[in-house]
Amino acid sequence: WYVDAENGKDTNDGSTPYRARQTLVEAMKLATKSGDVVHAAPGTYASGEILTTGLTTNRVEVAQNCGLVADQGPAVTIIEGAYATGDEANEKGCGPNAIYGVYLPAKAQIVGFTIRNCYGQGTDKWGAGTVGADRLVLGFAAAALGGVSLTVEPA
Known about the structure:
Blueprint lengths: L1 E2 L20 H5 L8 E4 L2 E3 L4 E2 L5 E5 L5 E4 L6 E4 L19 E6 L3 E3 L2 E3 L14 E2 L2 E4 L10 E3 L4
Parallel strand pairs: 1-2, 2-6, 3-7, 5-8, 6-9, 7-10, 9-13
Antiparallel strand pairs: 4-5, 8-12, 11-12
């Protein structure tokens, strides 16, 4: 499956790079079978959002046993969150209407992205997200634990 922030359309079927979807959320809807992978073209993914199983709003939720891969790496492939706004936002941009970057359930994988500007409810100043026994919500920082697979390439 394929996604392209700059040249894709969410009405496309996502079956080839030339028929890529535009948002990560819509592309991941195609990854329904174990082992499915969505390949992301270079670009900044700053639109689309989903209220995930973990009750956070994210740019994308990677399906269990599936993957999301930035084919040309983190220097040119970015998942951009959004700071909270309004009365409930604090000075760091944290709040209930912030958008995190990525929600990873157990046995899901993401490779080769820069994830930035992803603050949210309860996160620290770096927007590290929240961690549980079977999921990882990624903001600015990332880690691998509890059955969640995460590949981080050096900057």
